[in-house]
# Entry
Amino acid sequence: MKRHVVRLLCAAVRPLRVLLSRPHSGRAVALAMLLSMTGAQALAQGASQAYPSRPIRMIVTFAPGSATDTVARIYGQKMAEILGQPVIVENRPGAVGTIGADAVAKAEPDGYTLLVGTNTTNAAVLSLLKHVPYDPRRDFTPITFLGVLPQVLIVNKDLPFTNVVDFVAYARANPDKLSYGWTNSVSRVSAELLAQMADVRFFNVPYKSGSTSIADLISGQINFTIIDMIVALPQIQSGTVRALAVTTPQRITQLPEVPSIAEALKLPGYEMMGIFALFGPANMPRDIVAKLNAAVIRASEDPELRSRFDRMSLNVQTTTPEQLRQRFDREIAVWTEIAGKAGIKPE
# Structure
């Protein structure tokens, strides 16, 4: 990219040599004008035309194998084919996703460091933590929405519950006896909102990764979790855990025999979904944002990508950057309300 920009600058400077060889009083003014206009245009054109000229880092704020990681790798593979440069997924888990998100917020806004954001990192975190090292509204450039993912309540297969009604009845009779694992805001708030709406109490156990919580669920260290379909579905299909309910308003195609929490427990209004979107650091050039937006939209139209996500229950969705900004403004307001209903206070 640098060589391309230098060639453009040299082309812009040639007229200056001719101009400076002619004596006249406006020489300094003309020089300033040409440098500010032609040179700036050359730099901007060089940067946009050459992008991307090297690998792009896509930061995932949760562990390998998580839903966010899976979404990033599937999209990243297709984007690399479209953009002609590798898209390298880098996992930076910890602190409810804020470690990885903060790294992107503080990166150069050149389009080479991107964030696969979620409703945890870019919305709910304001309701979960007292001190967030970045501003979700101010410190990121929206690029496009990626998709929406249902959650599912799964229990240890050795527990006697075969349906969510019996599960809640037991929890009501035994406050704080049922423990659940959580790794992000969707997982935690899903359980706490259920507890509030069903008038029960659970004991919560935080985890750094969904795979670890699943392992402890299978071994009986915890009793249940509400987790995304991408992580849960293989375990449900293999019979190592039991699915009791989904968090969508209606049943889903992949688990037609499993009712929704709203349906089974007569709790209208109960709904919890994981969402994914692509962001960059604040102040990214518009033309680079446009290239990335177009690449994601093109990737989302690929039949293979859609087929893979369909099998995981992820509903592929894309937006303009402005639509994404508006969506997450609403998400922040929604999660503030949900966290309040769930009785969660910032820690």
